[in-house]
Amino acid sequence: MSQHDEMPFTIAPEEAWKLSGDRMSIRFHLPPLPIVGLPEPLRVHLDFDAEALDEMMDRLAVLRAQMLPPSSDARN
Hints:
The protein has helices at residues 13-16, 50-66, 72-75; strands spanning 17-19, 26-29, 45-48.
């Protein structure tokens, strides 16, 4: 992804991830995304069931294991 494709934002995990009222899914909220040409920011909410979350955590664990460890300078 190029630098121009990135939109940095910060959102607290407590705001980003919420358990549904029926406790059957987790909703992920992105902050409102301004899109050129749209009068209102785009609002994105993604719902995940338990199986999808398990698969995501497995995949993220694999990807995390492939990440480079922090440099010795960053630990000091």
